Amino acid sequence: MKFFFDANLSPRMARGIAGLSGTYGDVQVATLLDMFPKDVKDVDFINSLSETGQWCIVSIDRFTKHHNAEREALRRGGHIVFVLEKQWSTVPYWIKAERLVKWWPQIVNQARILESGMLSVPFAHRTTAKFKQIRL
Description:
It contains 5 helices and 6 strands. By secondary structure, it is an alpha/beta fold. Residues 1-86 form the VapC45 PIN like domain.
């Protein structure tokens, strides 16, 4: 299972999640900067990822700048997208990291059962909290 952290999330945070994910055995984590130039357009990295199979994309971006092209590329690629709700972008780094660690087991479990789609990840964490489906 491959996870891709978009440029709007810290590569250091992604590397921390990668280290913690070692307990899963089958989870790989990459960042945009691991694979692409910093200024790559969303539609270009999405299309490129599609050439290597399905990815689980973690982002704060709702992929609406070029709505049709980006979302069509996500649909075509069969990716699973976890969109961190807007509040995630307003909190300091360490609070965001702590919250992502709390959410990570639920994100991985959800990724295991989905074939594709886009889900919203709330900032407030509860073990009973559910992801909301976002229309792709």
